[in-house]
Amino acid sequence: MASGTLYTYPENFRAYKALIAAQYSGAKVKIAEDFIFGETNKSDAFLKKFPLGKVPAFETADGKYITESNAIAYYVANEQLRGKTDIERAEIVQWFGFADSEILPASCAWVFPLLGLMQYNKQTIEHAKDDVKKALTALNSHLLTRTYLVGERLTLADISVATTLLHLYQYILEPSLRKPYQNVNRWFQTVIYQPESINVIGAFKLADKTLEYDPKKFADVQEKSSAKKEKKEKRKEQKKEPKEPREADVDLADEIAAAEPKSKDPFDTMPKGTFDMDSFKRCYSNEEETVSIPFFWKEFDPEHYSIWFGEYKYPEELTKVFMSCNLIGGMYQRLDKMRKAAFASVCLFGEDNNSTISGIWVWRGQDLAFTLSPDWQIDYESYKWEKLDPNKDETKALVKQYFSWTGTDKQGRKFNQGKIFK
Ligand SMILES: N[C@@H](CCC(=O)N[C@@H](CS)C(=O)NCC(=O)O)C(=O)O
């Protein structure tokens, strides 16, 4: 089975293709940690492997390099997704081309100015609207008598075209604009609300209202991007400058973080302490809990890290177990950047229509970590958070229960499924 490392920035619809395909095939796709768009992909080491410096990019477990999102998705897919006959495979390639040539340029030309990523030009946008209309009309006719784009089951064609339509459905196609394309709407939602897609994208919401053009946005984005460039230059210079002798536990990354309050990783502003999160995660992944839990307590540094119990506040709204698991998976996905200095085991207790979600979280710092970044604030308010005292026996028991996926919730519902954030 395919396995390897995917280089991408978060929420990249192109990377979604491979990530969703991997959900179906079971391929092991690890997202490269610490990837910084614009930096990592411009480094010599990256360019040596991927000369165009673009993402997504994939490094197979046996050291081969693949670029182009459709090719990466193909590599990690299974036979069903790749098409079972020559004609199916040819049709899938046809839809790859359709997504990249007929939808994507028009989608970018319409969406990007509204997001402030491109200058607004009325003529270009009007042209893009026409192109989107043409593409959606063709797609709508094709889907009049079909559930999926190719054959009778979902393939890479559906994944590729649906992910390429994400921005249009997210920012542009408000109800009146999407009304003429009912077959496309039905198919899009079928693809995007499969558990395999939800695990990657989270709970996708169709546009209520088309994003409005705001001239200030473009100026803001421009300003931010030149400030970012300046910072990058500064950072380069700082690296070049001869350094003063440093205190033992302050490394270069900490210095940069200190010089740069709006660091990419809010945890970087906190002292690292002695708890080596990575080595605990490795131990947890590779060893039985009889080894990893004692290891956790031996290494845990209460001065710089804290342990929390998080309990989902609306259990009465939980229905199907798989949907609740997707809720947890979606939250993890949205907290991607928190992984570096956090770990969690969140469990679902009970069964369909009678379940609760709760978990043990460990992160750097003594306060609720979610408030450190606006990106981390989508889900946390749906949970009740309690800071646990690491010295108490109750905390030891909870850590043991949640790390080893056993026991019941407070009302006696049995452990059903768990998900690890690492
Ligand atoms: N056709 C490629 C396009 C990849 C691409 O353009 N990636 C953009 C980000 S979404 C990129 O890495 N740009 C960096 C650059 O151009 O320097 C694919 O589908 O993978």
What does this structure look like?
One of its GO terms (cellular component) is nucleus. Residues 85-218 form the GST C-terminal domain. Residues 222-252 are annotated as: Disordered. Keywords: Elongation factor, Protein biosynthesis. With 422 residues, the chain is of the alpha+beta class. The protein folds into three domains: 3-77, Glutaredoxin (3-Layer(aba) Sandwich); 83-201, Up-down Bundle (Glutathione S-transferase Yfyf (Class Pi), Chain A, domain 2); 277-421, Translation elongation factor EF1B, gamma chain, conserved domain (Alpha-Beta Plaits, 2-Layer Sandwich). The chain is 47% helix and 14% strand. It has helices at residues 13-25, 44-49, 69-76, 79-82, 86-115, 122-142, 156-164, 166-172, 175-178, 182-192, 195-201, 215-240, 252-259, 277-286, 289-299, 321-334, 393-403, and strands spanning 3-7, 28-31, 57-60, 65-67, 305-312, 342-351, 354-364, 383-388, 415-421. The strands form two sheets. The protein has a five-stranded antiparallel beta sheet, with helices on both faces. It is globular, with a radius of gyration of 23 Å. 32% of the residues are buried. The structure holds glutathione (GSH). The site of glutathione has 8 residues, from loops. Glutathione is lined by residues 12, 14, 53-56, 68-69.
Short description:
This protein is α+β, with helices and mostly antiparallel strands and 422 residues long. It contains 17 helices and nine strands.
Task: Give me the secondary-structure topology.
Blueprint: E1 3-7, H1 13-25, E2 28-31, H2 44-49, E3 57-60, E4 65-67, H3 69-76, H4 79-82, H5 86-115, H6 122-142, H7 156-164, H8 166-172, H9 175-178, H10 182-192, H11 195-201, H12 215-240, H13 252-259, H14 277-286, H15 289-299, E5 305-312, H16 321-334, E6 342-351, E7 354-364, E8 383-388, H17 393-403, E9 415-421
This protein binds glutathione.
